[in-house]
Amino acid sequence: MSLITASNKHAFKEWLREYRKMFGPDPIIKDYMGLVSKFLTSSQTGVTSDANKPVNIVAWDTFDETIDLTGNLIEGEYYYFPAVANDQIRVKNGSSTVILDFDNDGKIRNKNLGDFVDIGDVRLTLRGIGGTLGQAGPTTVYDFGNGVTAEITAPTAATGVNEGASIDFSINTTGFAGSGAQYFHVKWVGSSGVNFNSGGDFTSSAPTYWYWYSAGTLTKTLTLRNDYSTNEGTETFKMQLVDPSDNSIVFLESPTVTINDTSTGTFAISVSVNETVTRNITVQEVSGSNYYFVDGVQSPTLTFEKGKTYIFDQSDATNLNHPLRFKDGGGNSYIVGVTTSGIQPGNSGANTTIEISPGITTSALRYYCTVHGNGMGNTISVGAATSVTETNPIHFNINTTGVPHNTSLYYRLEGTGDTSADFGSGVNRNGYVPISTNNAGIGTGVVILTPIQDLEADDGETLYLELYSSSSGSAPVLATSSTVTVNDVPFTVSITPDVTTVHEIASAGETNSVTFTLSTTGIADGTVLNCYLEAVGSGSLFKTRDVYDESGNTSHQFGGDTSSISFRNYSVTINNNTGTLKLNIVRDGKTEGNEQFRVLVKQSSSGTVHAQSPTITIVDSSFVGSNKTGKTFGPIRVNRDNNVAANASDWYTICNLDQIPNNSKVALFLDNSGSMTTSTVQASYDLLVSKLNARGITFITVENQSEDWISDFDTTL
């Protein structure tokens, strides 16, 4: 028969099987990898590199024939099954028989490189395709070829590992040339359908990274985290050696390790809020009977939230002879955390206060009149906090059992609509909390977070806390708190200017500055409000540097000369419910007409506008030369003559300088800020100088790169 080629290799496989008995009585034909590799369409890295590597060719006559390989499956050796499309045989090893079903390429159906089939006590791992090339051996050994082998051991895997214990994985290699000469990668995988995750289940660094190996033995010790979760059940995982260029190709894997779920912990999170709530009480007669009206509502059922303090204000005159107190669910007087002002109801300052501690066990109370009984009031339910007003701390109280003392548990704050900015800069919404456990095994911890007054219209944001055994995002949730709604602190802002018309240059009775007064309610001292300037009017020429604050700052603004111009903020600090912003008007020396702007109070460029000033008009007072009538001329295009006399512009005539007296004084500014320099208009300049000198007119010339046309001339010539 001719040499094996792509076109005849299938026929060659059938020839081997038909004439297998020519090679001996056994079902195995002894040959080498050099021959078998010609049948293969793909193989794992290094498998076919040694053409002299022995291979056992398993041949058979008929479909579904039984081949007895008992005693012939030698660990570490290669076995080639010259299967054709949709072939099938039975392989016997000792008392075990396995059906091998082959697909169109002669590969064991539904198996890929690195997958395996167990035949009795021998595992056959798929190393090549085009027919099926397998390697027999224990699950922990892989032959890379050329004398290079690797083995994984895990001595304690067979018995399982409890959470909190450690397990050693060792990789033993032979035949490696040395450090960096050869390598392979390691990864860790959980078995299908279990909750194993590499980050949350180990106390060491996440073991799903790649590992770099060279010759010798390396041992990796993994300590399993006691995640305290009793919801996950038994988990399993294993270590794999994979192809460095394709981690989906598995060379070998460790024995499967069973993680026994030994967690016994319990976890709960209660919520309390440190906040004071005032209820305004009046008394009204309805159908011949007196009733308490709470914030205008007749004898409502009330809800007390843990951690809050409630003040019942009885200053209104209708409360005279109606002292308000509390009873428990059994009808007994309730005095825990209850204080009174000592002022008779109906007089200024009269009130009854009750503090609902976070650890309160009473779930039901009643408010009533000590003179007229229960009928004036109603019941009170007591439970966890469900709402908080900005600036008040939220206490997430953690209670555990089965957690060792000083164990760190991790938390994440979740919610809808809220952001880190709601808690101020530098506040981490994710973190850890140490658990203090007493001798009875009861553990406690607390996470305290305080939403700031963010001065945004975001009333009704919600948040809750989740508890974890580790910082890994895949760790199981141990407990989840109830949801807390965050309500805005009520506040008001108004802004009033002292004038609505200002001038670039103030004459008698005029001003070139405007002071804005911010008046507030409900905003704490030291709060910084942001004031944004906005151009007013279509085509407004209000520009980036038309104003400056008391520090001389004009750099807060950005944008161009358009009506859509947007400005960065000036900051105003509020104290005693007021703050001021003084803006001075820049003398820009440009005649552009009157300009208009206003000030918007908001905390960010896209935030809610809390207040808006009236429109401020800037009267253009700019002028040129000695013409102080408010009128000017220009611009007039002149030439860049590049020192060519024929191209010079006659600045003397353009500016009507023939109309000024002899021996006058003239000022000249030359812009040298970019492509424009004195040399580009030298011929025009020389022409002007000659005409001024002829009439005894003195002049000052300023050349600079700052485009400041004013400062150098704001002096007596």
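That was protein one. Protein two is written in the same sequence-then-structure order:
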Amino acid sequence: MKVRQEGNRLIIAEGVSQVWIDPWGENSARIRMTKEARMDENDWALTEPVKECIPVITEKELDITDPWYKGDEWTKYHMTGKEYTMVNGKLTVKINPEGWISFYNQKGELLTAEYWRNRNRINRYAVPLRIDAREMKPVQGTDEYEVTMRFEAFDDEKIYGMGQYQEKNLNKKGAILELAQRNSQASVPFMVSSRGYGLFWNNPAIGTAIFGANKTEWYAKRTKKIDYFITAGDTPTEIEKQYSDATGRTPMMPEFGLGYWQCKLRYRNQEELLKVAREHKRRGLPMDAIVIDFFHWSMQGNFEFEKRDWPDPEAMVKELKELGIETVVSVWPTIDERSKYFGEMSDNGYLVRTDRGCGDHMTWMGNTIFYDATHPGARKFVFDKCKKNYYDKGIRIFWLDEAEPEYGPYDFDNYRYYAGPALQCSNIYPVMYAKGFYDGLKEAGEKEIMSLVRCAWAGSQKYGVLTWSGDIHSSFRAMREQLQAGLNMGMAGIPWWTSDIGGFIGGDITDPAFKELLVRWFAWGAFCPVFRMHGERSPWYEREEEFIDGVRQLTSGQDNEVWSFGEDNYEILKKYLFLREKLRPYIRECMRRASETGEPVMRPLFFDFPEDQKAWETEDAYMFGKDLLVAPVMEAGISERAVYLPAGTRWKESATGRIYEGGETVSASAPIDIIPVFIREGADISVYEN
């Protein structure tokens, strides 16, 4: 094993095996390892030009003689080795004489270190397990490897970020997380540690992250190299900024994203949708966008309106514009074998391939294959069809559904993309799906680009992605899970996030229990980055016809407008529609901060109060921007809840006007029409106050 310096890079070399350590922007480094003669050049999400930083690189001679040698024997067997150090601002990288890497902050405090368990030397801690921190096992007959990267675990460490998982815990310490995209699961492998660093696993391969009590382990089933980014910071704010420097920042949110979005599964035709929009405006209710859901099309893969139910889209969009409402239209990446473009897309290699068995990927409402969003030609082809049939009719906003994509089943080892085998690169699919529309809209002259997308990976944010949490259940349990999902998506660098208000599956509009849930969720939705109603409300309407022109027809769930849940509930929902409008200037400023610094719009309490240890432990409340503490009601039948108020400032309970000292837990009043909100002292903002 040898260590050498090449410019600003340190290289650990052993045969053809190499580990590259590069400064990568402020207070940050990128570590890559290959066992091939050349380093794989794919940068995946680390594509942004970062600030050039000149590190301080030093070497020091260390005595590594085995300790039992004394006197003449010590002289005879005396050995030295070199320790190499790279200092890049607040991050210090050390390579010990055995080639093991550890990371420190500017105070000399250990952030994390590689996990080695072998007996290379006796004069330091050794365990004869022969477990290496960096493990690359070749996949026979290929240039791919099965990769494991191991780090030490720390009892005091808390871990946040990693994207969206359907579970209750905000702190991911102790979690086993699948690195794969599924409906309602978005793997975004960036973690923020309470020890003062962030680590991004720059690898879109299918794998696992394990944050165990005994070790942290990153695993990829098929890849060409180890590749990760690490950044040090005094605060979570600093860490998020440096991560977004490297992976990209979200643009400034368009004005229509700040208000209310109306949606249901599904408006069946043009007149039904317009009727809802007209009624909203007749009642004097605000609405910024209305969504046309799936199966408005003639067939999956035709990317066009079905002419019987949507006879004049241009007139529809024009009327909605006059009402001050943007039109959002659903696009799926599924291509039906009977669609007009199937043959052309297949011949051009624009479809995801299977290595074995049947080529169909999804058989719901037709036999379909996903288009290959990693193929530049396929991305352009799909957007060009959408431009002709949607954009040229006035539609500027797209709902990019099924973005994982949602394979049935998720046999990742059976699928192959233009970019490579799915096992190696599948997690990047939603990024490329969004990129196709972002690039197309930008080329068409659009300045404000926003796409609603049902999945994300690192870098999605720079393509104007608004992620939502998928087809979740209508229950308080699911609502509680969405809170941590939204917070961890923000910590993973995806600041635009929303959930289906009321949940997607299982909401019966005649059930009082569901109505209570919907009211609580709607109030919480007003304090999410995007305020969006959606759901598959039961009982469903019956189909008028099973098939039309050989295409199976889909019906619709029950009404899902604010006036659909009883007059008493309507008054509460109306209240939050106007409250959101009242908060519009504040939310706009939050979005500006996200665009300029990468900070999440909704974030855990510790983000703004990192010195408060209790804030790191609070998982049932959050900050909405820097001045509002929001405590959603996530249980049925309660009218008050405990809320921890971080230390270092005083807080005003917006609903009552009471002032509280920070650093204490208070009992907040929470009748059905109130979500507890506390305002930081000194903030010029009101919520419930007139």
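The first helix runs from residue 71 to 77. Keep this in mind for the problem set.
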